[in-house]
Amino acid sequence: MNIFTWLRASLKIGLISLWTVGIVAALYLGIFLTIPSPRLTARWRSFIFKNWSRGLLLITGVRRHAVGQPPEAPFLLVSNHLSYVDIAVLGSIVGGVFVAKAEISDWPAVGFLCRSVETIFIDREMRRDIPRVIEEIERQLGHGQGVILFAEGTSSSGASVLPFLPSLLEPAARSDLPVSHATLTYWTPEGEPPAHLSVCWWGGAPFGPHALEFFKLRRIDAKVVFGDRKFHSGDRKVLAKELRGAIVESFEPVVEQEDL
User: Fold this and answer.
1) For 164-196, how does the pLDDT look when each residue is reduced to its tens digit (9 = 90+)?
2) How far apart are CA 81 and CA 228, in angstroms?
3) Best label site of 17, 23, 92, 140, fewest CB within 10 Å?
């Protein structure tokens, strides 16, 4: 492996660590100053996470291409899921609170920041965890926050959009809340490892080695398309089906199924 790719990865890791330390310091200073107002504290957390995400994209060489109008808080936004990079790409635009799998809580640096900005962690192996998560989503919406969730329940290779799990759409169905949607895709420059292997995180690949390969990339292009239509239904299964259909329409495969 070229020594320059290792140097590139090492530099990115160092810069991310420094950026995260600085942003966490600003986060807790703001939390201290906004203690009297929970709503203002929530806005500060969202502001900090948005700017941390933007810095992360800059450091890692991710060029973001956004199409359409992102929703304004409070909102519930559903997206397809390809990688841990999705969180920074979407977070750099809309801020808000993410619903993420519980493992992320234990990741170095990233996990600490996610916990600090009240990311809603879910253990998808435990169905009894769902009511708690639904209650937390409703609480965040009540504070005027945006909530972003990946309804596929797991990330994929980007060959297709996986079936949506309707359970976490219960708060929207219960209150007839309009739900926004976004569609993500990635590609890498010619001569670099393909995005479905170096950016998309799937198939049980260990996080550490995969992230290292991601940091070695010179550049990554990320495209996010915000749909111009919002969906609402009192039936969460209908809502999941309609949202997935809309995302499939605007989805650009990262890789063709036959190339896997």
Assistant:
1) 999 889 888 888 889 999 999 999 999 999 999
2) 19
3) 17
43-to-28, 118, 234 alpha-carbon distances in Å: 13, 12, 29
SS3 category, 82: coil
* Torsions phi, psi for 151 (to 5 deg): -75, -10
Alpha helices in 78-129 (DSSP H): 85-94, 110-116
Which residues have C-beta within 8 Å of that of residue 86, sequence separation ≥ 6? Answer: 79, 150, 155, 184
Strands 146-150 and 75-79: parallel
List of residues 6+ apart from 136 with CB closer than 8 A: 120
Asked if the bond preceding 209 is cis, omega within 30° of 0, the reply is no
Query: Which residue type, as a one-letter code, is found at position 184?
Result: L
Model confidence, pTM: 0.92
CB-based contact 215:198 (threshold 8 Å):
no
pLDDT digits (tens, 9 = 90+) for 114-154: 788 788 888 877 777 888 888 888 888 888 889 999 999 89
